[in-house]
């Protein structure tokens, strides 16, 4: 059995040390056959971008020609080699992990990365090029290198690979917007660096492949670097990164994991589509490998659905929403309200409509709300769901919905007049699943509602209560939580499916809300009757789909008060 390559970005190590490898090498041929030589390719965090660049590096590097048949053995590209195989000097930069505390420290780290990688390149290919480490301008360093390389009159050209081109810039966007604009302006050191790369493509840089997450930095550099093509939403590259379902099935087969686990993984990690005409959705590859690695170790599903190494990156959703507030939203007076409304829409419906993805960002003007939606797409918080002439962006899977919910709860905490103890709520959810006791959870939710202001309740509806309850329920690792779960006869407001056999109960909750000003005893009794009838109508389907004892709960809220709580037998 092969080892799980979780977290590995070294192609040679994977191929020579008995790690499992999903063959993506056919895309080397596809990219080489494209008319574009200078390509930008964006994908969400932890989608295999660094491994892909390392694969390209090993394939095109003249120094790896003698190892080609060893490390590419039995892969697609070994059987279908391209004309440019093993024909380049590979120059690589990686701009992740740079210090963004100040402009000076960022520039120092950026310059150090450039100097280090150029020095490594010179030594690797044994070239007669001299670099002066006293040069503090990255563009000057690169120009000095390119001019000397040109003078060598080598037949071998450079293939330039840049990983995480925008990592440091994304750190600046939400909190230091002026600094971001400064480094990509005409006199900024990042803009100048890319201008030198552009100059190099006229002589020694033959091909270029750059990865990142968001297009904002690319668009900000455009006037100084207008030679590249953003191929992120190209149909034929939809499945280049991430895993298809058939690839995930092959992985499960390799590790002798039952196919019934596939449904868990599909629910949690699948759903990404990067072109509206794509025929297949893809899984987040890092999440899949995390799940397999944990499952192999524990022989059961990992307690945390989300890999914590990924969660820390994805939780930067706050930064993205903050960007809309900092830059401002066009035609809207209150940016915070606009962002809050978008978050509510996405959480309550799982999707949002968009005319088309933003083609170019301009931070000198206020953002359109579609700009924010487009960024959510590029960062992996939304994915394409196309229907006819209308493009919808939707939450791709359970993992991302959980991150949205956690962000929503953070917003609730900031609005609350008193402290909200999330730990007590988690204990109350566990009591529901283990003891079948809903009372503690109901009490905690009622307590949260009472801590919100009157202003928060001016626009409250049943959907808002449901969203709040869902966002707390999804915190539990013991069950999957689904909102508006479709069954014969309608949709269950909230359904909890146990993730482990030792969990005694599944649960469903039918929820009704009455505004305080609309309350009458007649309305109240009608809501109770309606909720009970709905649960009874769902009974046949419920018994088929839920494995084990089921708690069926009715909750009726009047304003902030939970006025009715009952279990339906």
Automatic annotation (TrEMBL):
Coiled coil: none annotated. It holds the Pfam family PDDEXK_9. It comes from the Bacteria. Residues 5-222 form the AAA-ATPase-like domain. This is AAA-ATPase-like domain-containing protein. It comes from Tepiditoga spiralis.
């Amino acid at each position: 059995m092969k080892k799980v390559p979780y977290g590995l970005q070294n192609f040679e190590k994977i191929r020579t040390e008995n790690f499992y490898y999903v063959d993506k090498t056919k895309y080397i041929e596809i990219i080489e056959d494209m008319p574009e030589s200078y390509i930008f390719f964006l994908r969400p965090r932890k989608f295999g971008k660094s491994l892909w660049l390392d694969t390209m590096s090993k394939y095109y590097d003249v120094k790896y020609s003698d190892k080609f048949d060893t490390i590419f053995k039995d892969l697609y590209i070994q059987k279908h080699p391209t004309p440019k195989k093993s024909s380049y000097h590979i120059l690589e930069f990686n701009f992740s992990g740079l210090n963004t505390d100040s402009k000076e420290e960022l520039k120092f780290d950026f310059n150090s990365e450039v100097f280090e990688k150029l020095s490594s390149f010179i030594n690797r290919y044994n070239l007669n090029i001299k670099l002066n480490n006293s040069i503090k301008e990255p563009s000057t360093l690169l120009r000095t290198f390119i001019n000397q390389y040109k003078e060598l009159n080598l037949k071998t050209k450079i293939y330039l690979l840049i990983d995480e081109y925008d990592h440091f810039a994304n750190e600046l966007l939400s909190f230091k917007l002026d600094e971001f604009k400064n480094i990509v302006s005409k006199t900024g050191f990042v803009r100048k660096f890319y201008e030198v790369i552009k100059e190099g493509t006229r002589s020694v840089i033959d091909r270029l492949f750059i990865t990142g997450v968001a297009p904002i930095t690319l668009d900000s550099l455009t006037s100084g670097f207008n030679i590249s093509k953003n191929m992120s939403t190209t149909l034929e590259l939809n499945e280049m990164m991430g895993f298809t379902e058939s690839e995930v099935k092959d992985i499960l087969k390799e590790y002798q994991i039952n196919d019934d686990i596939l449904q868990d993984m599909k629910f949690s990690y699948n759903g990404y589509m990067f072109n509206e005409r794509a025929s297949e959705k893809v899984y987040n590859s890092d999440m899949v490998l995390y799940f397999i690695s944990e499952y192999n170790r524990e022989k059961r599903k990992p307690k945390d659905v989300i890999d914590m190494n990924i969660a820390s990156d994805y939780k930067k959703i706050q930064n993205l929403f903050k960007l809309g507030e900092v830059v401002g939203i066009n035609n809207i007076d209150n940016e915070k309200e606009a962002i809050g409304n978008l978050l509510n829409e996405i959480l309550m419906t799982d999707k949002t409509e968009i005319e088309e993805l933003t083609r170019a960002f301009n931070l000198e003007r206020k953002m359109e709300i579609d700009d924010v939606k487009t960024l959510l797409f590029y960062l992996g918080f939304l994915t394409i769901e196309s229907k006819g002439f209308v493009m919808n962006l939707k939450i791709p899977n359970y993992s991302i919905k959980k991150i949205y919910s956690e962000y929503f709860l953070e917003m609730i905490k900031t609005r609350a007049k008193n402290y909200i103890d999330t730990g007590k709520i988690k204990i109350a959810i566990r009591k529901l699943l283990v003891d079948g006791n809903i009372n503690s959870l109901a009490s905690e939710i009622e307590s949260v509602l009472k801590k919100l202001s009157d202003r928060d309740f001016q626009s409250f509806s049943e959907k808002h209560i449901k969203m709040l309850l869902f966002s707390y329920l999804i915190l539990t690792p013991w069950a999957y939580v689904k909102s508006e779960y479709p069954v014969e006869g309608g949709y269950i407001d909230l359904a909890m499916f146990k993730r482990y056999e030792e969990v005694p109960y599944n649960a469903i909750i039918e929820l009704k809300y009455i505004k305080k000003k609309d309350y009458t005893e007649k309305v109240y009794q009608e809501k109770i009757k309606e909720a009970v009838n709905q649960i009874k109508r769902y009974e046949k389907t419920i018994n088929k789909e839920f494995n084990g004892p089921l708690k069926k709960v009715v909750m009726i809220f009047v304003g902030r008060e939970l006025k009715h709580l009952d279990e339906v037998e």
